[in-house]
């Protein structure tokens, strides 16, 4: 899966989870980005994905998660309004389904995104 933004892209390495398998079946799509602190998320089609046994609300930079209640892909890269200290805490438990190579450049580009941006998701 490839996430293409205006001036950069992120190649996702999907794991073998049920969440990743369901998301991989989607057709390519474009979505409006939403931000919540230092997190971006964007809606997908409702695939009926439920939280799995490993669902958690704290992620690390470089992990990509699926927020089941919001039918959205989420990338946390810093503090959110519910973070304690320096953790990356999302609003509720999510299914981590992919990772990506992190760098200072990617972090800086993610920090520049706002609700006026779109993402092109290439399958």
Topology:
Elements: E1 2-4, E2 9-11, E3 13-14, H1 18-24, E4 29-32, E5 34-35, E6 39-43, E7 56-59, E8 63-67, E9 72-76, E10 88-99, H2 104-112, E11 118-122
Antiparallel strand pairs: 1-2, 1-11, 3-10, 4-11, 5-6, 6-9, 7-10, 8-9, 8-10
Write a structural description.
The protein has 123 residues and is mainly beta. It is 13% helix and 41% strand. It is built from 2 helices and 11 strands, in the order βββαβββββββαβ. Strands 3, 5, 6, 7, 8, 9 and 10 form a 7-stranded antiparallel sheet that branches.
List the domain count as a whole number. Answer: 1
Task: Classify the secondary structure makeup into a structural class.
Answer: mainly beta
CATH architect. name: Beta Barrel
At CATH level 3, the topology is Cyclophilin
State the distance separating the first and last CA atoms. Answer: 5 Å
* Overall pLDDT score: 97
Q: What's the number of helices?
A: 2
* CATH class designation: Mainly Beta
Largest beta-sheet characterization: 7 strands, antiparallel
Rg computed from alpha carbons, rounded to a whole number of angstroms:
13 Å
Poorly predicted runs are none
What's the number of extended β-strand segments?
11
Give the strand content.
35-45%
Return the string of H and E elements: EEEHEEEEEEEHE
Q: What is the overall silhouette?
A: globular
Share of helix, binned: 10-25%
């Amino acid at each position: 899966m490839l996430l293409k933004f205006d001036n950069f892209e992120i190649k996702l390495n999907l794991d073998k989870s049920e969440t990743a398998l369901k998301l991989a079946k989607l057709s390519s799509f474009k979505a409006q980005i939403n931000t919540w602190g230092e997190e971006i998320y964007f809606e997908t089609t409702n695939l009926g994905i439920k939280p799995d046994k490993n669902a958690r609300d704290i992620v690390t930079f470089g992990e990509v998660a699926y927020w089941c209640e919001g039918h959205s892909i989420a990338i946390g890269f810093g503090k959110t309004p519910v973070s304690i200290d320096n953790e990356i805490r999302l609003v509720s438990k999510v299914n981590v389904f992919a990772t990506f190579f992190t760098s200072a450049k990617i972090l800086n580009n993610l920090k520049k995104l706002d609700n006026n941006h779109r993402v092109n998701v290439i399958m």
